[in-house]
Amino acid sequence: MNLPNRITLSRIVLIPVMMVFLLADLPFLPEPIVWHGVELAWGQLIACIIFIVASCTDGIDGYIARSRNLVTNLGKLMDPLADKLLVSAAFISLVQMDKLAAWMAIVIISREFAVTGLRQIALLDGAVMAAGAGGKIKTVLQIVAIALLLLNNLPFEIWGIPADAIFVWAAVIVTVYSGLDYFIRNRRLLKESKA
Fold this sequence. Notes:
Blueprint: H1 3-23, E1 33-35, E2 38-40, H2 42-67, H3 73-96, H4 102-124, H5 133-150, E3 157-158, E4 161-162, H6 163-185, H7 187-192
């Protein structure tokens, strides 16, 4: 359990903390903030900060593992799983809060676990499948979309369209595209897998 793996584990530990602030009615929190006519509960704001901090740990643990030669099999398994759990928890919570259509969450979560499964098959065969550019763009779009939805899309608009809608649709489209691209690029691995 080296430093990068501890950072990855902290991301998993932050998930239930985020969900408590997001979904529980906590009596000790002050009254909601109203900014430009948009009401934002303190629980949502705190959950958004936790989500952003947890998302940032993804880049930090990977950088430390590679730069200090601390890459482990545990880290290879736990890191993508922690990412998927964080994003899935956020999207499912947003569906429960009526801030996101259920089908969008299902499409995104399905892609995440399908690609994670493909990566696990590759690991069993001793191959490491690096994330492509589409996967990295997808991750950024998902993080921005979740943050905007958690913040009730405080008066952010792009060309008169709410920014959260733009980023959610962009995240869904790029998620589907990057998933298809990932499977197409690695179809040979699926055919040759011993798993």
